[in-house]
Structures are given as C-alpha cells and as structure tokens.
Design goal:
There is one protein chain. The protein has a single domain, classed as nmb1532 protein domain like (Four Helix Bundle (Hemerythrin (Met), subunit A), Up-down Bundle). It contains seven helices and no strands. The protein starts with a helix and ends with a helix.
C-alpha cells in the first residue's frame, strides 16, 4: 500500500503542475483566440479529464476502500473526497464549455474562461491539499494495517486496476510536457 500512497502523491504533484499551467495560460489569453493557446488549453483539459477519471481516481478509490477497512475514522472524509471528485468533473465540463465559447469568439468568453480556470484551480488546489493532509495524517499503525491488508488480499490490493507502469510514465511525461514551457 505504501507504493499506492506514493503513486497518489506523485499524481497530485503532476496534476497540480498541469492545473497551475492551465491558470497561467488562461490568464495570458488575448481577446482574440490564438490557436497555440487554445491547443495548449485543450491538451491540459484532455489530460485532466482523462487522467483523473481513468487513472487517478480509480487509484484513490482503491486506496479509500482499503482505508475504510482498516480505519473507520476516515469514512466522513472519504465520502467528502468522493463527492468532490464529482464536483471537480463538473467544473472541468464548465471549463471545457467556456473554452469552446472562447474558440467560437463569443463576446465575453475570454473573461468567462479565465474565471472558470481560476475557479477550477482554487477548487482543485484545496481538494489536493485536503487529500494530502489526510495521507500525511496516517499513523504508522494505520500504514502497517494497510500493508497487512494488502498482503492478506494481494489480488485485490497489490496493484489497483488501471495502474500500469507504461501508462503512468506516459501520463507523467505528458504532464511535464504540457506544463514545461510555461513553468
């Protein structure tokens, strides 16, 4: 389970980099869409939508299921985090719609897109900070209990669904490429 916890933390760092880059690109938009900026924003949105839904959240759900088994005190927090995942997805859809309006040159769309980007970033930064605090609050006893659970049910807990080294490396490289030129 320690490897899964570290994988979630690595994801958080990559996601945070992409969200920060998205904010910087959105903040620098001109009134008239520039294809280079809109392509970069599309790439960032695609990364966030696909990676969160297909790879990151399944890892967290896997970790959350194990935490529920070993430490009931986390239940209210885990339910809150799962609800936040849905809210974050809704904010990404709103951001996507605002980007489409901006690409279509709708009046006022740049400002709406910039607001959406700031709103999503603020939400996501807070969400990641709360999840990181919960991971840091795990006691040694709880981590050992998670490890024992994983050892007792290796098929279920050793490697979560959708966690493959080649996919993980590809998405990590993508996150770095998306954010690199504007860090």
């Amino acid at each position: 389970m320690r490897a899964l916890i570290e994988a979630v933390r690595r994801d958080h760092r990559d996601i945070r980099d992409v969200v920060d880059a998205l904010c910087r690109v959105a903040a620098g938009l001109s009134e008239a869409p520039n294809p280079r900026d809109t392509e970069r924003l599309r790439s960032m949105l695609h990364y966030l939508q696909v990676y969160l839904a297909r790879y990151h959240h399944p890892k967290e759900h896997h970790l959350f299921a194990a935490l529920r088994q070993v430490e009931p005190r986390f239940e209210p927090l885990l339910r809150e985090y799962e609800a936040q995942h849905g809210h974050g997805a809704a904010l990404l859809r709103e951001l996507d719609a605002d980007l489409a309006r901006y690409e279509g040159r709708t009046s006022g769309s740049r400002d709406a897109l910039q607001r959406s980007a700031r709103r999503y970033a603020a939400f996501h930064r807070t969400h990641l900070r709360h999840e990181e605090n919960a991971l840091r609050s795990l006691t040694r006893r709880e981590i050992e209990a998670l490890d024992r659970l994983a050892a007792s049910q290796p098929r279920r807990y050793v490697r979560p669904p959708m966690q493959r080294a080649d996919i993980e490396a590809g998405f990590a490289a993508l996150a770095q490429n998306i954010a690199a030129p504007i860090r």
